[in-house]
Specification:
elongated; 26 helices; about 800 residues
Amino acid sequence: MAGLPPDLLVAALQRSRCLALVADATGQVVWFNDAWASAPAIDLLRGRPWRDWLTSHGQASPAPQVLSALAAREAFCAEIELRLSDGRAWWRRVEATPLGDGARFAGYLAIASDITALKQAEDSQRAMAARYRRVMESTHDGIWERNLRTNQSWYSPRYKEIMGFADHELPNDRNVMNARIHPDDMEAFTVPYERALREGGQWHYRVRVLHRDGSWRWLRCRARAWPDETGKPAILAGAVTDVTDEMDAVEALRRHRSQLEELVRERTARLEAARAEAERANRAKSLFLANMSHEIRTPLNGVLGMTELALRAATSATQRRYLELAQSSGASLRAIIDDILDFAKAEAGKLSLDEVEFDPGELMAVTVRSVLPQAHDKGLALHFDSRGPALRLLGDPVRVRQIATNLLSNALKFTVAGQVRFVVDVEGSPADATILRLEVSDTGMGMDEATLERVFHPFEQADPSVSRTVGGTGLGLSIVRSLCELMGGSVQARSEPGMGSTFEVRLPLRAAPTDAAEPADEPTVAGAWAWVVGAAPGDPLGERLMRLGWQVHSLAGLDQALAQADAGPPPGLVVVVHDAREALSEAALVGLRDRLSAGCDIVVLVPPHGSEETGSLAPERGQALGLKVYIAPLSPADLRQLTLGHQAPSAATPAQPPAIAATLPLARWQGARFLVVEDNAVNQLLAEEMLRLLGFQVEVVSGGQEALDHCERHPPDAVLMDIQMPGLDGLETTRRLRQAQAQGRLPPFPIIAATAHASESDRRACLRAGMDGYIAKPLDLRVMRSEIRRVLRLACGDDSDAPETRY
């Protein structure tokens, strides 16, 4: 700058973007330019010695090399860090030049530049390098890179360590590294590698490499091709992981799995063989049960049937007593056989369920009628109560009735005196979940806690010594529990010694769809009077009538009813309960009828076991006297029918006469021709005699082919068909008869099965073959009468249910 005017030099420095200052020989800053004046740290440095301007943050004095230069009055260059008031770092590079001529030192001219951004970039780069180093060391992966432009390769120390070498022991040579790849894995490496050279992208491969100790190590590799500005691959980089232990584990697992699969195949073969053997044994067991049922029931059918016929022909009290004992013993044997067969079916998983529509109240009333004779013989009162809405349910009525029968039989068996109470309750509505609740309580001996825990176990009884008195197999309650669980329900027992027992069953059953034309609510009467005459203490009949709106007046007997006839409000309904323990006075009934108004219904409630010999009132005799005769207990349908006739005219529905009070149920079919198809001579005689007692003409054939030939020559009005017969069995005979009817070669007539095969699957097989009804052997006259009546009514197009309908 020789020849440059001093003022022009000062002006240039003043406007320079560099930080310029002048310090005198004493170390004081005597001038700085505009750039310094606007520098962020000027307020911290203004007025302070130049040494402070040269001292970095955290230091007490300038750096040693700066101090040496200052002492020697030499030029120097230094990087100095200051901290601003907000804590930020501010870096500058200072180049200081001494001022003066050779003999005199005048100070320093210092030119500085802001290098804060450069320092921050360096710090960031160092942090990133440290971060990458930590990542590589933490992952234990080996890293490699190849520059396709320079054809130079680099392998990280960890890469070489995986193969057992230090960094300096293997060159960064691609050919050397590739030579250590197992020959069998070279294709797995080169194919994706060369594709990446052409197309770029990412790829994966797995190879074995030769370790320093001569073993082969498995590497899992991940790599990527990085493109240049033209989009072509320029850099290849990847990472490798030593997965030798993992591959060894996979191979061990594969061998173990192979061994397990072989073991499973062997065991599966054994299990298949065992299953086939179990199925064969199960089929044999099922066949054995079916044959046992048939073989035991067939002679038992003859014993019980002929005993019943002999009872009707007995001429002396001694004969009747002997025959009644024989009949009672046969009935007990039949109950034991039924329990054993049902238990065997439950154990074999052969119990099955139907889903049909049924009325729970009607079903349970019929069930009570079947055990009332047992209660009468023991001098016990059996009370029946039906509660809840009048819903029809979907379920298996046969199994529901079996549950109720077993509970009632158990209660009657272990109750010496007092009563048994049976309550059926429907909880819920058609729109909600519905529970059928059955509760049987008794005044028997009761049980303690230990007995309650095992009472549902097979072959268990409350007191083993009692079995010698009351008999039984101890299977009834076990069968109840099995059936409840099969239906998704439960059974519980409550009892105390000497206080009786209560058994409660809860079955979740769906409500059947309702007909909009049917009334939604129970019929009610507005305070009409009903008399209950002769009911036993605790009988819920009065409560059932009150739930329908009746005002109930209980009277001890007909004498009291006659005395009351002319006093007080007249009744609209009188129910006379007859328990068949003493003769019923027809004169008293007629007198009561004459003294009450014509609109009063007088109902005589007779037990199902009642007869003229026991002083009971026959239905036809009651009709002749102008009385209504119902079989005890009154079912919900009976009560609804009696109540409907006494509703107000605006709400009443025309009352239908009860079916049992009309002509005898089989009277309209008197003289009809029945064909009995039965191969057993005893059963032929028994069926023929029972059908004749019911008023039918009877013809008998002993086989299926004979039945076909007979029907071709003389078509019957109905057929009673045995199932298990030599040659053409009952099912195939029925199919051929139905085929002949469909072709018009035979007129239609009902076919009823009569068989010792008593399972539900046997019943379904009969119905599928084309049969209209089903009677299980041993034949019972009342059961036969009820089923024949039902089938004949259906054949005539009458599908209404009478109170004694059999389920």
